[in-house]
Amino acid sequence: MEKQIYDSRGRQTSIARLAQFDAEAFIHMLFYRILIIFSILTFAAFVYSYATKLDFAIFQALFLAVWVLFTPQVFETAKGISLIQTRGFVFGRLNKSYTESAKNHVGARLAVMYRVIPYAALLVWVIGFAALLYVWFI
């Protein structure tokens, strides 16, 4: 007989359970799952527009949707890099004695830099989106 483990947060396949205790993780997973579908549609639209030399606008619209849906992934990746590089001090929810130790190890200047990295990556991502809109539509 197989042992069953009860998880009060719900099934692991249900991302709605994340909304109750981690909104950021919920947004990340929701956009990720939608992104999978849009990526497949974007590829199909690209192949169709390339093969027929028609309707490039459908591909453009889907590509822009994929870009927007990928935004949380970019932010979370940069945030994860900052978290790893500072040993959990920046963006971490750790006990006070550990954060003080990590703060001394990382240094105040680097801590500020690592805290800014995700937002800088997001800014570059948005500038890239604006540049793409400018090239395609203006």
Proportion of β residues? Answer: under 5%
**Mean pLDDT across every amino acid position:** 85
Shape: flat
How is the main sheet built?
none
Which range best describes the helical content: under 10%, 10-25%, 25-40%, 40-55%, 55-70% or over 70%? over 70%
Number of structurally distinct domains: 1
Can you count the helices?
5
Q: Please provide the ordered H/E string of secondary-structure elements.
A: HHHHH
Helix/sheet category: mainly alpha
E-strand count = 0
Distance N terminus to C terminus? 65 Å
Low-confidence stretches: none
Cα-atom radius of gyration:
20 Å
Task: Describe what you observe in this structure.
This protein has 138 residues and is an all-alpha fold. It has one domain. It has 5 helices and no strands. The chain has helices at 16-21, 23-52, 56-85, 96-106, 108-137. The protein is flat and about 65 Å long. The mean pLDDT is 85.
What does the secondary structure layout of this molecule look like, with pairings?
Layout: H1 16-21, H2 23-52, H3 56-85, H4 96-106, H5 108-137
Helix pairs in contact: 2-3, 3-5
Features of the shown structure:
138 residues, single chain
Can you give me a brief rundown of this structure?
With 138 residues, the protein is mainly α.
